[in-house]
Design brief:
The chain is elongated, with a radius of gyration of 20 Å. About 30% of the residues are buried. Helix 2 runs antiparallel to helix 3. The chain has one domain. The protein is mainly alpha-helical. The two termini are about 20 Å apart. It is about 70% helix and about 0% strand.
Length: about 160
């Protein structure tokens, strides 16, 4: 048995705040699928302003990919947040860092080339590295919080299997 910090209202190993955020993220996944369908329709329909603009293609493809991958990563990480030894700002960062990145990074990719005539990204591309900071901060905070909670009790199972 491992000692796990238990928040008020925890059911099934997940705190209400984590469960609520997971529900929101799950609802957003169809939006990413719709975005993929939109990109596909622009390719199949040979849409002007997309196929003839390599910068826009690359950035919108990156935005779509980052949105999907980061949403899934956020859902996976939420299963571990409530097992980490964190509180206050660090708990907030571990729980919300990757979801915030999943919003900021794709937004930077998409909004920086809204105009079909754009030949280079606008200043809104700055949202990408800002989102990257949230991504790195959230993953590091959670990783450190989980390592802080992994005491000798967690290693007993490994020692028993090695005998």
């Amino acid at each position: 048995m491992s000692a796990v910090r238990v928040e008020s209202g925890v059911r099934g190993g997940i705190a209400p705040a984590s469960r609520r955020l997971a529900g929101i993220l799950l609802i957003l996944i169809p939006a990413v699928a719709f975005g993929g369908a939109s990109l596909l329709s622009m390719i199949v329909g040979e849409s002007a302003g997309y196929l003839d603009n390599a910068v826009r293609q690359d950035l919108w493809r990156a935005g779509h990919a980052h949105a999907g991958v980061l949403l899934i990563l956020a859902l996976v990480l939420l299963r571990y947040v409530d097992e980490a030894r964190l509180s206050g700002f660090w708990l907030w960062l571990a729980r919300h860092g990757v979801p915030v990145a999943a919003i900021l990074m794709p937004a930077g990719f998409f909004l920086s080339v809204v105009s079909p005539e754009a030949t280079e990204p606008s200043a809104l591309i700055a949202l990408v590295p800002i989102g990257g900071l949230f991504l790195v901060g959230g993953v590091l905070a959670l990783g450190i919080g989980l390592l802080r909670n992994a005491g000798p009790v967690a290693d007993e199972g490994l020692a028993a299997r090695q005998v």
